[in-house]
Amino acid sequence: MNPALPPSPHDARHHDRRPAPADGPAVALDLRRAVRWLAVAIVGLLAMAVLGRVLHFTGLATRSYTVQQVMRVFEVDAEQSVPTWFSCLLLLAAAALLLLVGQLRRAARAPMARHWTALGAIFVLLSIDEAVGLHNTEFVSEETARGISDYFAIPWVFQGIAVVAAVGLAYLRFLVALPRATRRGFVLAGIIYVGGALVMEMVGASYIVRYTDAHPAVAAVVLVEEAMEMLGALVLVATLVRHLEAEYPRLGAHLVRRPSSGERGEAR
């Protein structure tokens, strides 16, 4: 009797259907949980900012130099502060997700890929602006602006309104073409963010003219303004996460869930 022959390489390849081992452990990013943690961080930062304003206007902060310095780190309208850094992070997160969608649409040769990519670039610029204050470059003198209305006492709102109008018109067709849920999220995020960045800025300008920079009413308006900007950016990030999950289910499976217990065991 002939001895059994070893299987040929062809037979081995034919019968062995097991997937090749990965180079490393698979990682599933839980972006939904990340969005929830971002929301918690916003609440915490705003609570610290409110506490700082309360301590300031009640005079309690002046009793301790250490308290003054700690509260200064959490001022929402300071360029070098934790809330400002966090706002930059939120805008960069939105930019990264927008650029990702643009790349996916380009790879699939889907329409409006450039619109997504350009919008991602706009949010990169918004993040830079949040950090270094590019918008403070004024093309209208303060005297001219105040001559129009107290609401324009901060002159940069002129170019802000112009930019918002230009982007809105350029992206109107893009917005209409979005899936309904994504479109609603974009509109809501835009209303909240622009409402904070422009509308509340104009309200704050009128309060500064009426009172002073140090008035509690001005501080309250600034808190509302920064809170709306953070919330608007967060709504956009959450909308983009849901859009990725709905439009790209294979990708979404890795971006919006945690690894299963089996996956975690294999990773170990």
Automatic annotation (TrEMBL):
Residues 1-21 are annotated as: Disordered. Residues 10-20 have a biased composition (Basic and acidic residues). It comes from the Bacteria. The chain crosses the membrane at residues 37-62, 82-104, 116-134, 154-174, 186-209, 215-241. Keywords: Membrane, Transmembrane, Transmembrane helix. This is Uncharacterized protein. It comes from uncultured Gemmatimonadaceae bacterium.
